[in-house]
Amino acid sequence: MLNVEKIQELLGNEYTCEAFTERKNNLTLSRVNIQKNGMNIGMCLNLSDQFETENELVNFFLEKQTEFCVISKKADTDYQNKIKIWNEAKMNVFMGLYGDPEFASGYLNKPFENLFMIPYVRFESEDENFISAKIKRDWYPSVSKEEIFQTALENTFKEACFFKMEDVISGFLCNKEPENLLHQFIEESDMLYVLTNKSKNLGASVFLCEAVQRKLQEVFPGGCYIIPSSIHECIVANKNITSPSEVLKMVQEINEKEVKPYERLSDSVYIFREGKITAVF
Fold first, then answer.
1. DSSP string spanning 52-72?
2. pLDDT band of 26, cuts 50, 70, 90
3. Fewer CB atoms < 10 Å away: N or C end of the chain?
4. What is the CB neighbour count within 10 angstroms for residue 177?
C-alpha cells in the first residue's frame, strides 16, 4: 500500500490527502481523496495495483488534475478526446450542484437559488471506473448553454432515485440496494425519503428535474423540505415534521460536525411547494 503521508509531503501544503477503503462489486478498493483549498479534485482507485511509487501517483495526478478527475490510471486517453466532442459526450452529460460561487466561476454554471448548477461529462472506463470532467465555458462553442443544461438534466433524470429512508438504512446494514420508488405509486407516504442517483455520486442535483418535482408534489401535496445532506444526496421530509428554523439548525450542525467540507452542498434548507423551490437561510 502506498504511503499517503509521503504523497502529502510530495504534493505540499496546498493539497490535503485522505485514504480510505470502499466496497464495490464485492471487492474492497483502496482509495485516496486529494483536495485543494478544501475542494475535492482528485481520486484514484486500487492504488497498490496501479502505482508502484508515491512519485508515480503524484506525477500522474498533477498531470491530469487541471481539467479531469481521472479515477483510473488505466483509463484510455481516447476518453479525454471524447469529452471535448459534443456528439460523443452528450449522452454522458449530467448535472452537478455546488454551493461555492468561487468554485463555480471556473466552469459553465447557472445559479439556482443560492446554489450553482455545473454540468459535467462522465464516462465509464473498461475497468468499471469513472472518468469525469466538469464542463468549462469554452467547451462546445457551437452548442448553446440552454442545450447543454437541458441535456444534463434529461440524463440526470434517467439515473434519479427516490428511496425511503428506512430502506436506505436497512439496505446499508444488510448490503442490499433499496427499492427505487420514483416511478411507482406511493399509497401512503413516509416522513423521510432520500433523493440521489444510481451511482450515489453528485446525486443531490436530481431534485432539479421537473419529473422528480412532480413526484414530490404527488407524495407531499402540502409541501416538503429538501435537505441537502451533501453534494451526493438530499433528504426529503414532510413539511409538517417541524419548523423551517429547526430544520435549518439541524442542517448547519450536521454540516459542521459530520460532513466533510468538500462534500458540503449548503447550510440552507429548501422548501418545495406547489411546484416552486425556495431557499430558507
1. SSHHHHHHHHHHHTTT-EE--
2. very low
3. N
4. 12
Q: Are 263 and 230 in contact (CB under 8 A)?
A: yes
Residues 74-92 pLDDT 10s:
444 566 677 888 998 999 9
- Give me the pLDDT at residue 190, please: 80
pTM of the complete model: 0.75
Contact 156, 198 (CB under 8 A): no
C-alpha pair distances (Å), 174 with each of 29, 166, 168, 177, 178: 19, 12, 10, 9, 10
pLDDT in tens, 127-177: 556 677 889 888 999 999 999 999 999 999 999 999 998 888 888 888 888
Number of Cβ within a 10 Å radius of residue 95: 26
> Which amino acid does the sequence have at 145?
K
Backbone angles phi, psi at 189, to 5 degrees: -80, 145
Length of the chain: 281
Phi/psi at 273 (nearest 5 deg)? -155, 130
Grid cell digits, residue 140: 462546445
Identify the CA nearest to 119 among candidates 202, 233, 41: 202
